[in-house]
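--- STAGE predict ---
source: upstream dedup step, 1 unique chain passed
mode: sequence only
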Amino acid sequence: MSRVDVRFLKWPDRLHWHFAGERIADDHHGTWIGGRAGGTARRGNEAPKTMRHDWVKLIVPGAWWTAIWNASGDCYVDVITPPRWTGDVVSMIDLDLDVYRHPDGRVEVMDEDEFEEHRHTLGYPDQVVDMARATTARLVLAVEAGEEPFGTAGPARLADWRAEPA
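--- STAGE serialize ---
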């Protein structure tokens, strides 16, 4: 395992959320990164926030999304620009839209108002807007249907990670 720095940016290159995790696996889904409860994440230059749960994040080459599964039982899928790797740093632009699966299985799209505001104030190009909307629509269907990795792959990877000694 090796350390990975995960950096979410806001359009076009302003630092947003950033945190570190451990590269725990690479498979046909992509690269899996794990983190422990008690780790920290920062939004921009704000004070670090403590993560309350163990988690795993999936980074998919070329995808317009990344997902995180939390030990609280939820799954949070960020709509992003395709991730870019530079050594052990992966960065992506957060496009505001999120697909969230609650622990009870309900699925909802979040932050549509933020997306609408930012597409104007931050100047998202039309092709980025179109891709973000299309990706969100596809993700809702995939998450609701439990298509992999949103079926058993994410929760299984999280269970394996949690079974590893800290």
